[in-house]
């Protein structure tokens, strides 16, 4: 019987480019996931070609992200930044260009399609039918889950997205869930067939995000050596709930005014999604709460500098209303900094409660203030969590993620063609 080899993957990321800076616009953990998994897949001998929408006229048609990893810029709609809500209107244009590119090569160029987010899944659905290859899909976020956990004043995801996700779930040959909790949501909320759902934990770059001197990191960032640094990293939008940190910090200062000269509340990231409507909302809230003097608002930074922010922090705060995994929590722990996180979604996997950080079942700023005060007033306890954070993060490497993805791809191809698969390692 002929054995099939998984040697090239067509990755579809329509709405956000892997070349964009995480923490700005629509770029976030999904971008990191696509980049890092693609790099590691290439190291395993599986080539990856990433199709993404071109957002500038001067972008090259093809760019090499890493050896064995190409980014293909697809023209679909205006080059300037588009609101994600307008992208469904560009699905036909994007799909047409993807199919045109594939048609330039001999048949069978791609062994499998891996789509990310529901818009890409719609493209992958039709490409799968045209190319005769399996579709593997990763949701990253789900409308039904987000709508169950909306922040105050946040807008629910539209029904068109719900229907689009349901279609992708039904057509995909395999669904990749970041955690067992997410797998359960796919099965319970979307009716996914259990045998088609595979759990693949995301990873962290343990070379970039690693423990190092807190004092040296604070010196490089211009932070006081003796400060208590409460850190938020991510896109500034209601879903991520950075306001919870600012409200909790204001309560800390009310309860202990002596902290004012020693407290730094740092928010690293840019406005995104619904947050674009009020890009200055955190500055406004800091003024309203009387804590502007302790708040630092920092644009998104490259990974090497981001690692310094984690190392410099006393605790990283992740108060999101919904997270498919929570790479920020994992990156922080890999740097030896414990995490205070909301007990939602993948954060329940990314953080070990009482071992590498704390998980809170509330978004009440008073409860968050009480939790954060422990990191400030109990240094020995905080140091024990730091040790646990390093140990916990060490189990999550991108190499393991890529190896597991190859297994998923191989199973999808084998099921479609009913033949054994040779994994190209």
Q: What's the total number of strands? A: 16
Uncertain stretches: none
Give the helix/strand class.
alpha/beta
As a percent range, the share of helical residues equals 40-55%
- The CATH architecture designation of the largest domain is 3-Layer(aba) Sandwich
Our count of helices gives 15
**N→C terminal distance:** 21 Å
Q: Would you tell me which CATH topology of the largest domain applies?
A: Rossmann fold
Whole-number total of structural domains: 2
Rg, alpha carbons: 22 Å
**Largest sheet, described in full?**
8 strands, mixed
Work out the strand percent.
15-25%
Neighbour order of strands in the largest sheet: 4-5-3-2-6-7-8-9
Please give the CATH class of the largest domain.
Alpha Beta
Report the principal-axis shape. globular
- On the 0-100 scale, what is the average pLDDT? 91
Q: Quick one: CATH superfamily of the largest domain? A: Glycogen Phosphorylase B
Characterization of the model:
Its EC number is 2.4.1.250. Homodimer. InterPro entries: Glyco_trans_1 (IPR001296), Glyco_trans_4-like_N (IPR028098), Mycothiol_biosynthesis_MshA (IPR017814). It catalyses: 1D-myo-inositol 3-phosphate + UDP-N-acetyl-alpha-D-glucosamine = 1D-myo-inositol 2-acetamido-2-deoxy-alpha-D-glucopyranoside 3-phosphate + UDP + H(+). GO terms for molecular function: acetylglucosaminyltransferase activity; D-inositol-3-phosphate glycosyltransferase activity; magnesium ion binding. There is one protein chain. The protein is an alpha/beta fold. It has 2 domains: 8-203 and 398-417, Rossmann fold (3-Layer(aba) Sandwich), CATH 3.40.50; 214-394, Glycogen Phosphorylase B (Rossmann fold, 3-Layer(aba) Sandwich). The chain contains 15 helices and 16 strands. It has helices at 29-43, 91-103, 118-131, 143-148, 159-171, 180-190, 214-221, 242-255, 281-289, 303-312, 327-334, 347-350, 365-377, 379-393, 398-417, and strands spanning 4-6, 8-12, 47-53, 62-66, 69-74, 112-116, 135-138, 174-177, 197-199, 228-233, 263-268, 295-298, 315-318, 339-342, 357-360, 421-423. The strands form 3 sheets. Strands 4-5-3-2-6-7-8-9 form an 8-stranded mixed sheet, sandwiched between helices. A 6-stranded parallel sheet has the order 12-11-10-13-14-15, sandwiched between helices. β6 (112-116), α3 and β7 form a beta-alpha-beta unit. The radius of gyration is 22 Å and the shape is globular.
């Amino acid at each position: 019987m002929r054995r099939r080899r998984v040697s090239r993957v067509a990755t579809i990321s329509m709405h956000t480019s892997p070349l964009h800076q995480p923490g700005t616009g629509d770029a976030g953990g999904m971008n990191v996931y696509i980049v890092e998994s693609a790099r590691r897949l290439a190291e395993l001998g599986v080539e990856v070609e990433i199709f993404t929408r071109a957002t500038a006229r001067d972008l090259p048609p093809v760019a090499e992200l890493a050896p064995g990893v190409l980014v293909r810029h697809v023209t679909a709609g205006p080059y300037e930044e588009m609101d994600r809500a307008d992208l469904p209107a560009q699905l036909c244009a994007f799909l047409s260009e993807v199919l045109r590119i594939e048609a330039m090569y001999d048949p069978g160029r791609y062994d499998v399609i891996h789509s990310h987010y529901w818009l890409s899944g719609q493209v992958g659905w039709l490409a799968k039918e045209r190319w005769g290859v399996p579709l593997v899909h990763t949701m990253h976020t789900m409308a039904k889950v987000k709508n169950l956990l909306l922040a105050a004043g946040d807008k629910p995801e539209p029904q068109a997205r719900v229907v689009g996700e349901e279609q992708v779930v039904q057509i995909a040959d395999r669904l990749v869930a970041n955690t067992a909790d997410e797998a359960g949501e796919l099965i319970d909320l979307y009716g996914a067939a259990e045998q088609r759902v595979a759990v693949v934990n995301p990873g962290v770059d343990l070379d970039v995000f690693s423990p190092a001197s807190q004092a040296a990191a604070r010196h490089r960032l211009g932070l006081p050596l003796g400060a208590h640094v409460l850190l938020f990293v991510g896109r500034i939008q209601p879903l991520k709930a950075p306001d919870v940190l600012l409200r909790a910090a204001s309560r800390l200062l009310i309860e202990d005014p002596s902290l004012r000269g020693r407290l730094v509340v740092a928010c690293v990231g840019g406005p995104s999604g619904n947050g674009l409507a009020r890009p200055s909302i955190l500055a406004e809230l800091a003024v309203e709460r009387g804590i502007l003097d302790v708040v630092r608002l920092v644009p998104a930074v490259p990974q090497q500098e981001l690692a310094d922010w984690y190392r410099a922090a006393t605790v990283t705060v992740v108060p999101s209303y919904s997270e498919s995994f929570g790479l920020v929590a994992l990156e922080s722990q890999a740097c030896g900094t414990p995490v205070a996180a909301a007990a939602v979604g993948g954060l329940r996997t990314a953080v070990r409660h009482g071992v590498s950080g704390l998980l809170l079942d509330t978004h009440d700023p008073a409860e968050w203030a009480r939790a954060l005060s422990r990191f400030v007033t109990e240094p020995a306890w905080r140091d024990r969590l730091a040790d646990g954070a390093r140990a916990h993060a060490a189990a999550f490497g991108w190499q393991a993620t890529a190896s597991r993805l190859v297994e998923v791809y191989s199973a999808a191809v084998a099921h479609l063609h009913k033949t054994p698969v040779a994994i190209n390692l």
